[in-house]
Design a protein that fits this description.
Layout: H1 2-17, H2 22-35, H3 40-51, H4 60-76, E1 80-92, E2 96-102, E3 106-108, E4 110-112, E5 124-131, H5 134-139, H6 142-145, E6 149-152, H7 163-168, H8 170-181, E7 186-190, E8 208-210, E9 217-219, E10 228-231, H9 233-244, E11 250-255, E12 258-272, E13 277-287, H10 297-316, E14 323-330, H11 338-346, E15 354-357, E16 367-373, H12 379-389, E17 395-398, H13 408-412, E18 416-422, H14 427-430, H15 443-462
Parallel strand pairs: 5-6, 6-7, 7-10, 13-14, 13-15, 15-18, 16-17
Antiparallel strand pairs: 1-12, 2-3, 2-11, 4-10, 5-11, 8-9, 12-14, 16-18
Helix pairs in contact: 1-12, 2-15, 3-10, 10-15, 12-15
This protein binds zinc ion.
Zinc ion binds near residues 287 and 299.
C-alpha cells in the first residue's frame, strides 16, 4: 500500500513538474522555509486583538475592525483594497446572571447564546427538566416540557480534528427552538467546549428564518424561541449533581440580550492582482468579527493574520501570480454567516471565476494534514503541493475536503477547495469564551500555518489549468 502511494506520488510529481518551472518551485520552497520564522501573521493577529479587541457583528468593535482592516491591507501593500456592504439584524448582549434557587442555592455563570431574546427584567424562574441530549428533547412529549426550563447536559468530546464540535453543537443551535415548540419557557445548555474552567461558551443559535430564494431574514419571536444561555462545564456538572437528588430543581436566570434594528458592516477585501488572468481568483481569508467575550485571537484574528500574511509574503518574494489572490475578511460570520451570504449574492455572476478557495478558521495550532476537493485532472498539482508540505509536517489525506463556513456559498456553487487542518486538540477549551486571547497564539505555530498556506496559495495561483467545477454535486 505504501509503495503504491509513493509510486503514485512520484508519477504525479513528474506530471506536476510540467505545470511549474523549476525556478518557481525553488522560489516557493525558499519562501516556505523563510515563513517558518516570519512574524507577519503573528504581528497582524496581535494588531487586530490589541488595537480593536472584541468585534461582535454590529458593535463599535465591528466598525473599528473594518477601519483597521482597510488600513492594514493598504499598509501591507496589497494591489487593490475595497469593502462590500453586509446588512444584518444587530444583536446586543445585556446583563447575565443565573442561580439555582432550590433545593440548594448556588450562583451559576451564564452567557446568552447569540440571537437569544431577553428574559423578563426581573428574571425567568422555573423548574428544570433535564435531557441528556438534544435528540432526547426533540423526541420528548410536550407535556414534560410545558412551563419548564429545559437543560441539555451533553458534554462535548475532545478530538484532534475537532469533530466533537459537530457532534455536540446541535444542542446550542436548536435547544431554544425545540423548547418553545413544546411550550417550555427557557433553555439552558452545557457549554459546547472541552475545558474545565468556569467560563461559559457563547455561540449562535437558531434565532431567525432565512428565505433561501429572496435572502430575506425574519426574526423568530417570543413563543417561537425562548431565552437561552450556556453554563460552564463545572456548573453543568453541579446542576447534574443537584438533579441527581431527585427533588424539583428551581432555576432562575436573567438575560438582557436582544435585537436592536439593522446594521450594515463590510466584508473587507484585499487583492494581489494576477499577471495574466486577473479576473480569475484564488479566494482565501478568515472572518473579521468575533464574539464579544474576548479579543477573538484564535477565532478568528489568527485566520485573518495567516491569510493576509500569505498574500503579502508571496508578493514581497517577487512572485507575481498568474491569477489573482483575493483575501476576504468576512463580516459577521459568528452570528449568522452574513458576510458569506452577501458575497455569494454580490458575486453570483462570477462564481465560476473563483478557481479554488479556502478559509482559515480553526485557530493557529500546527497544521498536520490537508485535504483537497478538486477534479482528478488537478490531482498532480495537489501531489506537488504534498511534496512541498510533507517537510513541514503536513500530510495529504484525501480528495474529500469540505470546510470553511464563509466559503460555503462558493462550495455550494461548485468551487474547488482545500482544507489545511490545524491540530484542534485544545481549540475548544477557548473557543467563544473570555479566554480567547492573544497569549494563546504561539509564534512558531502560526508561522508554520503561514508556511503551509504559502505552498497552497502560490501553486494554486500559478497553475494554469483549473481545479474543476461543480465539485459539490459529486460528493
Ligand atoms: Zn470562527
Amino acid at each position: 500500500m505504501f509503495k503504491v502511494l509513493v509510486l503514485l506520488l512520484s508519477i504525479n510529481t513528474l506530471y506536476a513538474q510540467e505545470f511549474f518551472d523549476a525556478d518557481f518551485i525553488k522560489k516557493v520552497t525558499t519562501l516556505r522555509d523563510k515563513a517558518l520564522t516570519d512574524s507577519t501573521a503573528y504581528d497582524i493577529t496581535e494588531s487586530l486583538t490589541t488595537e480593536v479587541g472584541p468585534r461582535l457583528g454590529g458593535s463599535k468593535g465591528d466598525a473599528r475592525a473594518v477601519k483597521w482592516a482597510v488600513a492594514k491591507f493598504n499598509e501591507l501593500g496589497f494591489d487593490k483594497v475595497w469593502t462590500e456592504p453586509v446588512t444584518f439584524p444587530k444583536w446586543v448582549r445585556g446583563v447575565e446572571t443565573a442561580q439555582i434557587i432550590a433545593p440548594f442555592p448556588h450562583e451559576i455563570k451564564i452567557t446568552a447564546l447569540g440571537g437569544s431574546l431577553s428574559t423578563p427584567k426581573r428574571g425567568l424562574k422555573g423548574e428544570i427538566v433535564h435531557f441528556k441530549t438534544i435528540e432526547d428533547l426533540k423526541n420528548a412529549d410536550a407535556s414534560l416540557v410545558k412551563g419548564k426550563i429545559t437543560f441539555i447536559s451533553n458534554r462535548m468530546e475532545r478530538y484532534k480534528n475537532g469533530k466533537g464540535y459537530g457532534m455536540a453543537n446541535g444542542a446550542r443551535y436548536m435547544a431554544a427552538k425545540y423548547t418553545a415548540d413544546k411550550g417550555g419557557i427557557g433553555a439552558i445548555i452545557r457549554s459546547i467546549g472541552t475545558d474545565s474552567n468556569r467560563d461559559p461558551h457563547t455561540g449562535g443559535m437558531k434565532s431567525v428564518n432565512f428565505n433561501q430564494e429572496t435572502g430575506e431574514i425574519t426574526l423568530l419571536k417570543k413563543g417561537e424561541v425562548v431565552p437561552a444561555g450556556a453554563i460552564s462545564n463545572p456548573d453543568a456538572d453541579l446542576l447534574v449533581n443537584v438533579l441527581k437528588r431527585g427533588k424539583p430543581v428551581i432555576f432562575k436566570y436573567t438575560l438582557g440580550s436582544h435585537w436592536d434594528g439593522q446594521y450594515t458592516s463590510q466584508n473587507v477585501i484585499g487583492e494581489i492582482t494576477g499577471r495574466e488572468k486577473p479576473e480569475e481568483v484564488v479566494i482565501i481569508g478568515g472572518h473579521l468579527d468575533s464574539w464579544d467575550l474576548a479579543t477573538g485571537a484564535i477565532d478568528d484574528a489568527s485566520g485573518c493574520g495567516i491569510t493576509m500574511a500569505v498574500a503579502k509574503l508571496i508578493k514581497d518574494a517577487g512572485i507575481k501570480p498568474y491569477r489573482t489572490i483575493r483575501v476576504v475578511l468576512w463580516a459577521n460570520e459568528e452570528n449568522g454567516l452574513h458576510g458569506a451570504r452577501a458575497y455569494g449574492k454580490a458575486h453570483v455572476d462570477e462564481l465560476n471565476k473563483h478557481i479554488i478557495g479556502a478559509e482559515s478558521d480553526f485557530g493557529a495550532s500546527p497544521i498536520y494534514q490537508f485535504k483537497s476537493n478538486v477534479s482528478d485532472q488537478a490531482l498532480p498539482v495537489i501531489a506537488q503541493m504534498a511534496e512541498l508540505l510533507t517537510p513541514i509536517g503536513v500530510t495529504y489525506v484525501g480528495n474529500n475536503a469540505r470546510s470553511g463556513a464563509d466559503i460555503s456559498p462558493l462550495l455550494k456553487a461548485g468551487m474547488a477547495t482545500m482544507q489545511l487542518s490545524q491540530d484542534g486538540t485544545n481549540y475548544f477549551d477557548l473557543h467563544h469564551t473570555q479566554d480567547d486571547t492573544m497569549d494563546k497564539i504561539v509564534p512558531e505555530e502560526i508561522a508554520q500555518n503561514t508556511a503551509a498556506w504559502i505552498v497552497f496559495v502560490a501553486l494554486a495561483a500559478e497553475y494554469k489549468g483549473d481545479f474543476g467545477f461543480d465539485l459539490y454535486k459529486k460528493q
